[in-house]
User: Fold this.
Amino acid sequence: MSMIPSLLQLCRPWYTVPVSLTYLLTVYYARGGAMSGRWSDDAISSVALALVIAAAYVVNDIVDCDVDKINAPWRPCAAQRVSTGAAAGLAIALAVTGLTMAATCSVRFLIAVSVIGGAMFAYDLLSKRIGPAKQVMVAVLMTSYYPLAIVQASGAYGPRAASLAVFPIWLLVTAWGYELLKDLRDRMGDPPINGRPTSLQRNPEKWRRLAGTAIAAAAPILALPVAFGCKWVYAVVAAIAIVLGVAAAFVPLRRAIVLVYMECLVAAMAAGLDVMLLGV
Assistant:
């Protein structure tokens, strides 16, 4: 029993659960709320996505175990609370279960999830060696649940569907800046590339300004969905998310990371509360 909290920590539920729920909300938006007879299938697809993402996070901890002993010594593999062998077994079980569940949805969904999962595992293996492409790859992967949701919904045709062209733009830029902030936090433990310190290690102040500027500049994009079907509840709650995103440019690094995480949660809450209280 004592290992269960550590195994859960490996799965990063603070990321996997919000992302999978936001994916499900995106499916709802794409379908225009026409979910009758589809809730079960869509819920299964959401769980499948969560399991594949969790598997990728576990692999990330395995690959980064030595680096995490410096950057994040509390993580289960780095702290030796979970062996890399046990973590590998967990990753395989999560991935197989997730892909099996995806196969019950549709072939096209299975293919899409497999491609995204494969890209996540490739990132786990290459992230410390690809320089600035690392943050770009994370941003693309984070944004990939939008097209995945449209695949599951067989298109985007509801009254809020046009907003699904806006949200990915905001998330792409914000996720890039967020990953950059986290890499700045962890820069001292990251290995050099080709024997040289990375640009983040040489010029942290420049990259901190760039990350903050990108996140703050992207935050007002969250106001645009009001012009594409979202209503006043969304507008009110999204205003809080915008403030959080802009504020992230002006606070210390670790606090900025928390604010951007909260911005993303609040933005998802805005989109969800809007349809819950006002309907499609």
User: Anything to note?
Assistant: The chain has a mean pLDDT of 93. DSSP finds 13 helices and no strands in the chain. The CA atoms of residues 4 and 82 lie 10 Å apart.
